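Worked Example 4.2. Consider the chain below.
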Amino acid sequence: MGLEGMSFTFELAASLTHKGEKKCILVYISGHDSPTSMHTETKSNWTGVPAQEDSRSGPTTYRSLTETTAISQASPDSFESPREENRPTQAELPTAPKSWMEQSGTVMQVELSTLFVGKTNVRKTPGDVGDLAESVKEKGILEPVLTRPVGGRYELVVGSRRFEAAKMAGLKTIPAVIRPMTDEEAIIVSLVENIQRNDIEPEEEYDAIIALTKVNPRAYGTVDQLSKAIGKSRRYVDDRINAVEAVRNIRRESGPGISVRQAPLQAERNEGVLPVKHATFLHRAEEAPTVQELPRRERISKMKQLAETIAPLPSPEAESVVSHFVMAPQRPVEDIRSEVSTMHAVKMDILLDPRVAAGLRKAAEERNTTTEAVASLAIHSWLRQHQYA
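Applying the procedure from the previous section yields the following structure tokens:
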């Protein structure tokens, strides 16, 4: 059976001798419609092949693999197959790291006492590493941490949980990639790596984003520039900034109790911990002109009540509560919550006069809310005025 119409890529790690010089290479064979090209290279994202190991002289050192050889229509005569006794075992072959962050740099065993978590590491709290520590005791550290040299020591850029787990497991050394980096590079690397792992809380993410804008305002001064730098959409960056600023504004004015997390448990939400989406709803309310017109003390109190009210709710109901609050922020938040719960229990299809529909849309735009919220509030107001509700 032919290979016509197929796209394919193969890769093979091997040890070959090229013109008398032994090399460890990675072979990529790829093609479309016909397998006519081959590319081989020794990739710098390998952790390296042990150059020497001597229990008397301390940790293993590693030889960097950096040379790249490109071959097109390569002839089989270009290479000699290595003798069987020189062929590396599976254990000796270098392993590609899991993260693009560790594609270059020197890999070596580093004493834990020389490592420290610095200002560029976006993870400020490693969280519970008990299970990870048990895994480290059994299997060791499977992926090196990423560090940069600073004043004779090594600042941890990525891998703070592995670092803490290694300490808890009683290790003296840890495998580490050592790569010179500027503050700017280190922040981006740490931020992107933790976002990719979905291993960072919104407030840590926000602090790193703001740090980038301060380190290099010309390169990261806009949301578009930030989104390109960290590989996320403009909406993603906007939501993180708005969510955290809304929560911190409430906390700054009314004290602790309100926070935002990536995926809080329901028990945490009942205590005032908001998911990111709910916190963006708070930002919308905070920016609404009707809310801004409230006296300062009343506005602070209302925003905290609103945060505590919507935190436990499903997202659609939370958004509806905020929309109704924006329409009439003077009303008690709990009354708004009760009304929204009642309205969510009944769905009605209503045909409106075009002039009424246009008025609803205009009111919604001016009030920064939805037409549904305006309609339900107007109907409810009329019903109460005429003592139907």
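The chain has four domains: 7-96, 101-212, 233-332, 350-389. The mean pLDDT is 75. Compare this with Example 4.1 before moving on.
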